[in-house]
Structure formats: structure tokens, C-alpha cells
Amino acid sequence: MIYFDNSATTKPYPEALATYTEVATRIWGNPSSLHNLGSQATRILEASRKQIAELIGKKAEEIYFTSGGTEGDNWILKGVAFEKAPYGKHIIVSDIEHPAIKESAAWLKTQGFEVDYAPVDARGFVKVDALASLLRPDTTLVSVMAVNNEIGSIQPIHEIAALLEDRPTVSFHVDAVQALAKVATEVYLPERVDFATFSSHKFHGLRGVGFVYIKEGKKITPLLTGGGQEKEMRSTTENVAGIAATAKALRLAMENQEAFASKTQQMKEVIREELANYPDVTVFSGEDHFAPHILTFGIKGVRGEVVVHAFEEFDIYISTTSACSSKAGKPAGTLIAMGVDKSIAQTAVRLSLDLENDMSQVEQFLTKFKLIYEQTRKVR
């Protein structure tokens, strides 16, 4: 099997699974309990919070645990919007955000908020000047992803941060789900960022666990009320074993980050160079300021899902851009926002590589690609 769909989810590290099993077996008390088992769970919980905070260069008290990226995006977008509603009901999101952001923004519109969408250029980067023109006195929130999940473009977070530097009343959120442990933290988490979202299963942790960064002093409406967990911001019994596994996975992923970037970039370039030899192939992912592991392309006249299933016949797994939209059969929203014709956008497929992949797998992929390309000649 060749797995080239790591942006959808990654295989958990064995060490992370071992941590989960150990904590779930040996330290299974509720952190809210007063007895010793509860105290043990609390110590693991807070040690994990501290480790995660240190790994991303933040304070432990600025980390709040969630169930993943979608929950985090929903919480921050809606929580900030409602918390700051007395001061304004206008928010800005980029036109290439994950559905967790775009659908949340659409829902906020039904609640009386105004939403503007910052456009992107033909390469998939937010136009900072255009975003600046959308800012209003009643703007309370700007949300822009760090790394686009469909084509891998690294967004100009520092430029947007500079734009907002003299606008302290505007909160700045970054969806960093596809960035953490893939590109350097300083690229997408400058000091001006007030909120950020992360998901464990994107860096070899477990599904169902994530965390958000909320800068000290920033206000947000609580996500869940009840038992008062997470400083009364998300009241539910914490998934201590999953959180401990997340801390372990993040430490390993950060230690491997440099090797990850080097190896995946090399593999991506080999694939890119080979695809350039096929006249009916369009490569949508650029080279400069793109994540090292994501490469999106399409075969003229062949829908992306056809290509995905063709590779699956050879036990090679890729995807049609966003995993969250693939089963819905929607064309890549990022490509549409870039001005790509819908008929071309529907051909897009995404490769997302990992440190566990190697050049022998790349060679096998390219060999099977040649066969698939020839098989689709009549369609083209």
C-alpha cells in the first residue's frame, strides 16, 4: 500500500498509541475528582498542556483542548463574533477557508452578522490589499488559514498581521491545522495572532483531539457550559489519554519537522518534474511559498474521483483536494476562488506526502500514473 493522503489524516505514531494505552489503562481517573486518581489525571493533563504550549512557543494557560480542527474553528469564529457583537458585527474570512470556517461564517450571517470574503490571486494567496479594503470600523474578526488544505499555498500571515497591527480591536484567527509540524511555527504564528486552531490527527496523533491557542487576555464566549473544565471555557470531562498522546505526537513531529520538509519537498519535486512531461496535466500547486508536502494536479477531461479510484485499484491512496468535501463531489473551492474554470477544477486530485513515504513509492506512483494517463486518452 502507498498512502499519499496525509493531509486528510496521518497514521498515528506507535509511541502516541502507546501513550494513549498507558494513560487510559493506568491513569483513568477523572481530572475533576478530588481523590488521588483524579490528581494523577490532572498532573498528566497539565503536563501535556505545558509541553504543547512550549512546542509552539506559547504559555500553558493559552492552550485549550478540543475535539479537533472543526470544533476549534467553529468555537473561535462564533465565540469571538458573539463576544464582540456589542462592538461590531462584521467579520472577514478568506475565500479559500476550510468548510469549518466558511460554513460557520455562513451561519453567522443568519444570526445578523455581516461577512466579507477576502479574495485570492491566481496562485491561491490572499490579496492583502483587498483584505485591507474590506476592513471597517465595526470589523471585529479576521480569519485566514495558514496553509491551504487543497493546494498547499502558505498564506501571507505576517503581512496580514502587520496590516492589523494598529487595529487592536480586530481579533486575528489563524487556522493552523495543516501547518503545525509541516512549516516553521514562526511562519504562521506571529505575536499579532490572537487565536489559532490545531488538530492532533494531522501530525500523527489521534482523531478526536485538538487544541486552540487563545492569547492571554483575549475574550471569547465559552463553547460549553457545565462542569467548569478548561477554565469554564469548554465544560466536559477531558480526554486525558488522547491529550497525552497528542503531546507525545507533537513532540515527535516537531523533532522530525526539518527532515519532513526536506524529504517531502524532494519527493514532490520529482513528481512535479515528471508530470510536466504530460501535455494534458495541469499542476495547480505552485513552487514558491507552498507547503513542502502538498501537490495538486488534474488530468484534462477526467474528473478527480475517477483518478482517485483508478489509483486505488493499484493500492495507492490519494484524494480529491479537501477530504471534508470529497464525498460531496464538489469541485475544489480554492481553485474556483483562484479563477480556475469549474470543468478544470473538477479534475483536481491532491497528493499529500509524509516522512514515511519514500522515493520507491514515488517511482511506483509515477509508473501507475503513466498507465492511468494512457487509459484516459479517449476521454481526453
Describe the structure.
The chain is of the alpha/beta class. The protein has two domains: 2-8 and 257-377, Aspartate Aminotransferase, domain 1, CATH 3.90.1150.10; 14-251, Type I PLP-dependent aspartate aminotransferase-like (Major domain) (Aspartate Aminotransferase, domain 2, 3-Layer(aba) Sandwich). Helix content is 41%, strand content 14%. It has 15 helices and twelve strands. It has a seven-stranded mixed beta sheet with strand order 2-8-7-6-5-3-4, with helices on both faces. Helix 6 (157-163) links the parallel strand 5 and strand 6 (171-175). Helix 1 runs antiparallel to helix 9 and helix 3 (69-83) runs parallel beside helix 4 (99-110). The longest helix has 20 residues, at 36-55. The two termini are 28 Å apart. The model has no long low-confidence stretch (mean pLDDT 96). GO terms for molecular function: iron-sulfur cluster binding; metal ion binding; transaminase activity.
